Amino acid sequence: MRNKAIFWLIFIVVTALCWLDYQYFTEGHAQQLSPIKRQIGHLGLLAIITPVGYLGWKAYGVSWIQKLWLAAYAAALAIIMVVGLIQWKTNIFGIGFLDQISRLRLFFTSPLPYGMLYIINKVVKSQQNR
Fold this sequence. Notes:
Blueprint (H helix, E strand, L loop, with lengths): L1 H25 L8 H26 L2 H28 L4 H14 L3 H17 L2
Helix pairs in contact: 1-2, 2-3, 3-4
C-alpha cells in the first residue's frame, strides 16, 4: 500500500511541477522573462519531471512503463534540444514547425503522460485477466 501512496504523491508532485512550468514560463509571468530564460526554465522543469515521474513508476512496480517513461522523455528532451540548437544557430525553421515543437514540450510538461500511462496499464491488466 505504501508504494501506491508514493505513486500518487509523485503524481501530485508532477502536476505541481507542470503547473509551475505553465504558470511561470508559459503564461502568467512569462512575458516578463527573456526568451532564453523561458526556454531554460521549460527545459529545466522538463528535466526535473523526467526523474520524478520515473520514481513514481518505480514505486508502482511496472518495469515496462518505467522504460517507456524514460524513453519518451529522453526522446522529447533530445528533440526539443536539437531543434532549439539548430534554430539558434541557423534560424532555419518556420513558425509552424516551432509551434509543433512547443506543443510537444507542452504535452510533456503536463500531467497527461503520467495519467495516460496509468490508464494504459489498467487496460493492459484488464485484458490480461480475461
